[in-house]
Specification:
With 541 residues, the chain is an alpha/beta fold. Helix content is 27%, strand content 20%.
Length: 541
């Protein structure tokens, strides 16, 4: 078999192909990193004569999962360099943990605490009292944080600081800085983490949070050049999932590029290979939940409006420039006004290029909705809504506290009816790292319950088939890679997730307990093993 690298047969298993032509099979053959055959054991053996066989003991085999939107570098920082305070509800307890852990950190490192959505974090005054001489930042999410005076001073931020579009420095009733910043992480003078420190942290995060859960392709929103170099280095070693990178355009959170015609032409040249490539660009229209550009805010002072980064003509120009170069664009738009701009811009692109299969995406679209008009417009114009079902976990129990008031939340069944697909993603930068497990997010899709078990929109739950499609077929389509992955069919990449049970025979409340026995990327086992002995997983760093 030396002339057939990574060639083998998997048998005694339930193959859930996600392929309409052959939904189920009992065996499959892999050769040269691709699926050679799938079907009955007899048929597979005929197609793969002499291949070694591995008995999976009745396990289920699925296409490897695809995450269309996440933040790996931020996750790695929160796991390896920052202090996890997500489990604490008392601000004093959070400060105590920060004080305790600060003594173990390098002197040059800022003290960064990772919180989560809606958490009661310490005030600037509490942080100042505990850390009068050392910079501290505590994050709710990647969009909003509270910092102390030392952090403001080191970063050169004061009452006279002007900010770029899409950024807010909050003040108290007397006009003094209260330490709360929105979309301003780039303004903080946090020393850059070296590639030498980032490589093992990113490696561990990709393996433990993604490979361990059957994820074989990750679409990363780029954070820093050093982080991207670290990921490319790891990709070259073929020990992590495939990585498609989205580069954020200025202005916006952690912007890495400008949307000039020259830049778009360079990026549109299919840079990279099937292990690490530039997938497209990301554009921020507004901020996070509190910085969303909404109609309701316009009745108040402009300083309280959502954080709009650009106007409609600018977005149209950016989208047209990108699609001319063959680039896919993912536009972040949470508030209804930001979404109106984004939908209208996609419609304009469709008018300019009526026959182009652009698949321009609007991230977070249909997390909240009042009707289906804009969704229908987006779909008719060839765009894609990419909501985040895992966010339902953080929704308040009280409907009156949900943003925006009166909106339907996570109407997934309606989205499936109109759009036909729900692209799977985790979209976490540390606030909810458990959403990197597709089985957790699929459970959210099946139940639509928050962390306290409160039903958020029970009439909009979806089927197991739909949840599985989200992270396979739908995710492949949303990233324009459906001819390469997302199904188990001859000629497609041999990216597989082998699990310990049949998902169709598993209750929704147990989905997060599904165990991945092996994760296969290009025919190579990168996590776990086959049941009766298999190729050794590639060594970790």
């Amino acid at each position: 078999m030396k002339d057939r690298p990574n060639a083998y047969i998997l048998r005694n298993c339930g193959v859930i192909t996600m392929d309409e032509e052959r939904p189920h099979a009992e065996a499959l053959a892999v050769a040269a990193g691709k699926i050679l055959a799938v079907g009955s054991l007899t048929d597979v053996r005929e197609a793969a004569v002499g291949f070694p066989e591995f008995d999976l003991g009745g396990a289920s085999v699925l296409p490897g999962f695809i995450d269309v939107h996440t933040h790996v570098e931020m996750i790695a920082l929160s796991r390896h360099f920052w202090i996890d305070v997500r489990d604490l509800t008392d601000p004093d307890a959070i400060v105590a943990r920060l004080v305790d852990r600060a003594a173990t950190l390098p002197a040059d490192d800022w003290i960064v605490g990772q919180g989560t959505f809606g958490q009661n974090l310490p005030s600037k005054e509490q942080l100042d009292a505990a850390f009068p001489d050392r910079a501290v930042a505590v994050r709710w999410t990647m969009h909003k944080y509270v910092v102390n005076q030392a952090a403001l001073d080191l970063s050169g931020i004061d009452a006279n600081t002007s900010v770029s579009p899409g950024v807010r420095i909050q003040r108290d009733a007397e006009g003094r800085l209260n330490g709360v910043l929105e979309e301003a992480w780039d303004m903080l003078a946090i020393p850059a983490y070296s590639r030498q420190r980032l490589v093992p942290a990113i490696h561990e995060s990709l393996r433990e949070l993604f490979l361990r859960n059957g994820v074989t392709t990750v679409h990363e929103i780029g954070c820093t050049p050093e982080g991207l170099r670290a990921m490319q280095e790891l990709a070259n070693e073929r020990s992590i999932p495939r990585l498609g990178v989205l580069l954020t355009a200025k202005p916006g959170h952690q912007a890495l590029i400008e949307t000039s015609q020259r830049v778009m032409q360079i990026l549109g040249g299919q840079l990279g290979d099937d292990r690490y490539w530039v997938q497209g660009i990301k554009i921020f229209m507004d901020g996070g939940r509190d910085g969303a550009f909404r109609t309701d805010d316009l009745s108040g002072p402009a300083e309280g409006w959502g954080l709009l980064t650009r106007l409609y003509p600018t977005l149209v120009d950016e989208l047209v420039t990108a699609v001319r170069a063959g680039m896919q664009v993912c536009t972040h738009a949470i508030g209804d006004l930001a979404q109106e701009i984004a939908v209208s811009a996609v419609e304009r692109v469709h008018e300019v290029f009526p026959d182009l299969d652009h698949r321009l995406r609007i991230e977070h679209f249909f997390n909240e909705s009042f009707d289906t008009v804009n969704l229908e417009r987006l779909v008719a114009a060839g765009g894609l809504a990419v909501p985040n079902p895992g966010f339902v976990f953080a929704e308040p129990d009280d409907p009156a506290r949900r943003q925006p008031p009166g909106a339907d939340k996570f109407s997934l069944r309606t989205l499936e009816r109109i759009q036909g697909r729900i692209p799977g993603n985790s979209d976490t930068a540390g606030a909810q790292p458990f959403t990197t497990n597709p089985w957790f997010t699929m459970q959210c899709m099946l139940q639509l319950k928050n962390k306290n078990g409160v039903e958020i929109n029970p009439g909009e739950t979806v089927s197991v088939q739909t949840a599985l499609r989200a992270f396979t077929v739908d995710a492949a389509y949303a990233t324009k890679q459906e001819m390469l992955k997302g199904r188990i069919a001859p000629g497609l990449l041999a990216d597989l997730a082998i699990i310990d049970r049949d998902p169709f025979a598993t209750s929704p409340q147990e989905f997060h307990q599904v165990t991945t026995l092996a994760t296969v990327v290009g025919g190579a086992v990168l996590h776990g093993s086959f049941s009766d002995g298999s190729p050794e997983p590639i060594a970790t760093l």
